[in-house]
Specification:
Elements lengths: L6 E3 L2 E9 L16 E7 L3 H7 L21 E11 L1 H4 L5 E4 L2 E2 L1 E6 L2 E6 L6 E4 L7 E10 L1 H8 L37 E2 L3 E4 L5 E13 L4 E11 L9 E6 L2 E7 L4 E8 L16 E8 L5 E9 L4 E5 L11 E5 L2 E3 L1 E6 L9 H14 L4 E4 L8 H10 L2 E5 L11 H18 L5 E5 L4 H4 L15 H14 L5 E2 L7 H4 L6 E4 L9 H4 L5 E5 L7 H7 L31 H14 L6 H24 L7 E4 L22 H9 L3 E5 L6 E8 L5 E9 L5 E9 L3 E9 L6 E9 L3 E7 L6 H10 L4
Parallel strand pairs: 23-24, 23-30, 24-25, 25-26, 26-27, 28-29, 29-30
Antiparallel strand pairs: 1-12, 2-3, 2-4, 4-10, 5-9, 5-12, 6-11, 7-8, 7-10, 13-14, 14-17, 15-16, 15-18, 18-19, 20-21, 21-22, 31-32, 32-35, 33-34, 33-36, 36-37
Helix pairs in contact: 6-8, 12-13, 13-14
Length: 765
């Protein structure tokens, strides 16, 4: 064994023991005689994977396989692992057991010594282990209790703690809300060690933490004013002769003697090499380090990470005025940035498998033309690998705290749990240049409005989002803006003002209808439309022989809706909704599955294209559109534009065209005319030539020169409204930028065969 090791991975093969909750002992010394089922299990992993491998439960990926796992929701588990520890690691005196992800309620024992308990699946935990760790053989046991069972035993959900799926237990448990069943994810109340486990021996004297934040930038001069704040672990004696050095890209930019365990410096960096978001320049990263130097000039510890020098601010109004004026925009290095992007939802219901999907999902995120991504509050907090990719590729990240669609407990115990969670997450992510914004929750403000006929409750008294999380951000990341909820129902909005930022779901009817067209939102952070996966994908989502047609009214396909439990009907409408949307587009019911898939995907493609382009055409008043959503985290039928098996729907190609950095779009008719607008998201003036033609006849409808200001939009021309029949207009531009787009004009219904032919001719299939 290597005695120089300071970290020992405990990933790999473990043994899992489990049974109904009341049969599983609470102490490890009673485990041998408990008669529990035992399985081989991998860590990172989830208990469902072990159950499936042991033949005790079906494949959850094949509907309705997830329903069979409900019987294991009240089981408890013991994870067991024996390992050898190098003498040097065991003798270091400060060894810790690090659990990067334990879902959800854990009790940890090492060599018969209780190290502590955990109660949050969403963040990592560090438990002091030196007093129990031995050189040589060690035995680690971790009891994972049933969160559902313990939440029900508490039985304290306050009146009004409503939830989207009636999963009241989720309101107190700190695990991903989607696990209780959502309209985009199945019910799978997972348990397990879903991220890595290891022993670590931190240095005795250390740079415990460093916070890097950009106070100001000068893009013309290329300079930045940067603050670095650090905390130290110091010796009891002689520390007054120690020093701290600050380095950027290997060069010392500041050095001073230690006068406290905390320190802070403001750095004036010339030729800093600024970090720019996608489309605006290079996302320049720098190696930034803080070193702790002892009295003899030796480096006792060094903390280094990748940082970017940039400012990002949220410019927003509390509400829109009666005339629709107001603001909601991200401002990067002093300039407003039009956010084109998506909502990032779970990569997998069993999160130990998230890394398997990450590279493909990130490639699709890039290929779709996104420059911004919203981390949705019903999910887990994403990995460091995700944020490193966004840092390197210049994508802005809107980060929700992990709260969604409910009124959460307002008591001291829950507040304390959220303080601990928020501090852990903030300190892990705050140095990421891609991180643009903290948001308190997803739709918890709206939860105060649901299911209370005749009464409007005020979310501005919510202790969690208005006090706890706001104070955590202010304490640990004060230079980054905080939005209490999405959408945020401020006092001014509740008094009758319009919402500057909104989620547009509504009736989910005609995608060109009044619900969407009348919205005055400056920024849309959720909006979606259904699209059926390909036949080949559907066939893999259900058992062989399951009828795939019809889709609507087919009980066998309701688990794909997603129906979380056999008796739950909350989402049974979704397949029928998709059928109505498809029929509305083509003017008739599709005759078979292939027609249904084609019509549904065309409906979704044109809908999401319409949403994006409607808001982009208003650039200057609008500043963002984050559509729902990129990729399915499970084999389902949904609003995603890439299904679970990685097959893009037609909407993916349509979105990619709509999200070009320079694009010509056609607005819906007003006064018998369509405005044609050219949008430029680049930071330079463009001289273009735009040509518009009828795709079928090739007849030119308009051609002309267009000058588009930097980061602006300009009306190029107007075209007469089509009142009879249907046309496909192709828009092509050249000059300082080149590209193409399309618009389908004329009243619906639109013939399916012509739509398909146009999409083939446009290269969108």
């Amino acid at each position: 064994m290597d005695d120089s090791l300071t970290s020992l991975s405990l990933d790999g093969a473990w043994t899992l023991h489990g049974g109904p909750g009341d049969t599983v002992p609470a102490q490890p010394d009673a485990l041998a005689g408990a008669g529990l089922r035992s399985f081989a299990v991998a860590v990172p992993g989830n208990v469902e994977l072990a159950l499936q491998a042991a033949g005790l439960a079906p494949d959850p990926l094949v509907a309705p396989g997830t329903w069979d796992y409900v019987r294991f929701e009240t089981w408890a588990w013991w994870y067991e692992r024996s390992f050898d520890c190098p003498a040097g690691l065991a003798a270091g005196g400060g060894a810790e057991l690090v659990l990067d992800g334990l879902d959800c309620l854990g009790s940890v024992w090492l060599n018969g010594v209780h190290l502590g308990d955990t109660a949050n699946a969403l963040v990592g935990h560090r438990l002091a282990a030196a007093h129990a760790l031995r050189p040589g053989a060690n035995r680690l046991l971790i009891r994972v209790s049933s969160g559902l069972r313990e939440a029900r035993a508490a039985a304290d959900a306050p009146v009004g703690a409503i939830h989207l799926t009636s999963g009241f237990e989720s309101l107190r448990l700190r695990k991903a809300a989607h696990q209780f069943g959502w309209d985009i994810m199945p019910r799978l109340l997972s348990a397990g060690l879903w991220r890595s486990v290891r022993i670590e021996a931190p240095p005795r004297h250390a740079v415990r933490d460093a916070y890097w934040t950009t106070l100001a930038t000068d893009p013309v001069q290329g300079s930045a004013r940067v603050l670095v704040d650090w905390s130290l672990r110091l010796p009891d004696q002689g520390w007054e002769r120690w020093r701290v050095r600050v380095l950027v890209d290997g060069a010392v930019v500041a050095e001073e003697g230690v006068s406290s365990w905390r320190g802070r410096r403001v750095l004036e960096l010339r030729d800093a090499g600024l970090w720019w978001p996608r489309g605006w320049g290079e996302p320049r990263l720098h190696r930034a380090a803080v070193e702790l130097v002892d009295a003899d000039g030796r480096v006792a510890d060094r903390r280094e990470e990748q940082v970017g020098f940039r400012t990002v601010r949220l410019q927003r109004s509390e509400a829109l005025a009666a005339d629709g004026s107001g603001d909601f925009a991200l401002v990067v290095n002093g300039e407003r940035y039009w956010a084109k992007g998506t909502n990032w939802v779970p990569l997998d219901a069993l999160h130990s498998r998230d890394p398997q999907h990450l590279d493909a999902a990130l490639a699709q995120l890039w290929d779709s033309g996104c420059n911004t991504v919203r981390m949705w509050g019903g999910n887990v907090y994403e990995s460091d690998a995700f944020f490193a990719w966004c840092d390197a590729h210049g994508l802005l990240v809107w980060q929700d705290f992990a709260l969604g669609c409910g009124i959460y407990p307002q008591d001291d115990a829950f507040a304390a749990a959220m303080v601990a969670e928020a501090e852990t997450v903030i300190r892990r992510l705050r140095n990421r240049p891609s991180l643009a914004l903290w948001c308190g929750s997803n739709e918890t403000d709206q939860a105060f409005q649901w299911n209370w006929p005749g009464r409007t409750l005020d979310p501005n008294g919510d202790r969690v989002t208005r006090q706890v999380l706001a104070q955590a951000v202010a304490a640990h990341d004060p230079m980054r803006d905080y939005l209490p909820s999405s959408p945020y129902l401020s006092a001014a909005v509740l008094a009758g003002g319009g919402q500057p930022e909104d989620h547009l779901w509504g009736p989910r009817d005609d995608f060109k209808g009044t619900y969407y067209r009348r919205s005055q939102a400056c920024f849309v952070s959720e909006i979606g439309y259904h699209g059926c996966p390909e036949r080949a994908s559907l066939a893999r989502m259900v058992a062989p022989g399951t009828p795939l047609w019809p889709v609507a009214g087919n009980d066998a396909l309701l688990p794909l809706s997603v129906k979380p439990l056999p008796g739950c009907t909350a989402y049974d409408y979704r397949n029928g909704l998709m059928a109505r949307q498809a029929a509305q587009l083509i003017g008739r019911e599709p005759r078979d599955l292939d027609e249904f898939v084609a019509a549904s995907q065309l409906s979704q493609a044109e809908a999401k294209k319409s949403f994006i382009e409607t808001w982009r055409a208003r650039k200057g008043r609008t500043w963002g559109m984050l559509w729902w959503n990129l990729r399915d985290g499970w084999p389902i039928i949904s609003d995603a534009v890439v299904d679970w098996f990685g097959r893009p729907k037609l909407a993916f190609a349509a979105i990619r065209a709509s999200q070009q950095e320079v694009v010509a779009v056609v607005e819906e008719p007003d006064g018998w005319q369509h405005r044609v607008v050219v949008v430029n998201d680049l930071r330079r003036l463009l001289a273009l030539e735009l040509a518009i033609e009828d795709l079928d006849s090739g007849a030119e409808l308009w051609r002309g020169a267009v000058r588009v200001p930097a980061n602006g939009a300009v009306e190029a021309c107007r075209l007469p409204q089509v009142l009879d029949g249907v046309r496909c207009w192709r828009l092509r531009w050249s000059g300082d930028a080149a590209g193409s787009n399309h618009y389908i004009a004329g009243p619906r219904p639109w013939p399916l065969e012509r739509l398909q032919a146009w999409y083939r001719a446009l290269g969108l299939t």
